[in-house]
Amino acid sequence: MPPTPQAASGCLFGLAYGDALGAPTEFLNMRQIRRRFGADGPRDLPGTPALVTDDTQMTIAVAEGLLSALEHPPFTPDLVLPRWRRHFIDWLHDPDNNRAPGNTCLRACRNLDAGTPWVEATQHDSKGCGANMRVAPVGLVPGLSDEQRSGAAQLQAALTHGHPTGLAASELTAFAVWWLREGTAPADLPAALREHCHAQRAVYHERWLEDLWRRPAVPGLSSRRATPGSPESGPGDPRSAGAPLRSPDPQTFIARGWDECLAVLDRLDEALARADRDADPCEITGAGWVAEEALATGLLCFLLFPGDPVAAIRRGAASSGDSDSIACLAGAFAGAHLGMAVWPAEWAGRIEYAGDLARFGRAWD
Questions:
Q1: Binding site residues for Mg(2+), as ranges?
Q2: Is residue 1 domain-resident?
Q3: How many Cβ atoms are within 10 Å of 39's Cβ, its own excluded?
Q4: Which amino acids are annotated as binding site, given as ranges?
Q5: Structure pTM?
Q6: Domain for residue 2, yes or no?
Q7: pLDDT for 194-252, tens place per residue?
Q8: What phi, psi does 20 have (nearest 5°)?
Q9: C-beta atoms surrounding 243 within 10 Å
Q10: Considering its fold, how many domains does the chain have in total?
Q11: pLDDT tens for each residue of 129-182
Q12: Cα separation values, 341 from 2, 52, 81, 104, 313, Å
């Protein structure tokens, strides 16, 4: 398939639309959602302007840092890191940062603001979806090498989320966006992501991640699925108790993340084989509070409706999990695949931060 026209605009506006549509349902169960919005979830953006959450706000922070760094090639971690750090701190102090931001992001950004080196500021035991809800801009930039795209996707995650699964899921999310904008057929995407997991399983991007792998992480996180009692984007974190565990080498550290992503891709295959468009998308692929589940459930919503982007984000919004992040990622994938023209035209004038989204879209379309 040929590259998608206006893919960057479609992706960025799509993620904001999904974010806004899913925000009112984030802490509702399926019964409450159906009672309030009907079986298919919210039908229209809420309000004018339609307010987004920290998902879109932090996506804008990532995009701002990228855009600035790309004006001064070559693109390197030393170039983009201080820019991301500054924009994350700006987000921390923004008076509009009042949209139930994730505690992991808040803690890490406070540490960054205090001048702590990022490898110490990050939350080493967190793989929450804050790692990859904001990574789409890395997948939209043309002209990056695979090493640059992989390293940048992982680094923007690592500034706040130091768990290897958050890093791997962020890289997969960025490459899913990139491949879709470049014309990969949606049906081919799960296999491409699986192949990427195997190819990258022992690759540690030291140029981008420094010695992050040496830091202790909390064991047992891979076996725990976060619940609405401990969401990434609300009170609490998707964490596990236990004694700190250090990886013996960088390859072992990063392989853990890729293995957890491979496991959730198995669940995605199961959900796609079931192909139930009416079921809660979180039933098989997970509630999305953690990064690999947000990727898989966002992908599921998109792949169930590959030609109907509004249906995809409505499905994400009508879910029992982290609905704004799930719908946000579904919208990013749909927009990267289909472009800007597929979204309702009047939404562009109603969504919050439309000017910023349009500016990044023009830069990368």
A1: 53-55, 322, 324-325
A2: no
A3: 9
A4: 53-55, 322, 324-325
A5: 0.94
A6: no
A7: 999 999 999 999 999 999 999 876 454 433 333 333 344 443 344 333 455 688 999 99
A8: -65, -40
A9: 8
A10: 1
A11: 999 999 999 999 999 999 999 999 999 999 999 999 999 999 999 999 999 999
A12: 16, 21, 34, 35, 16
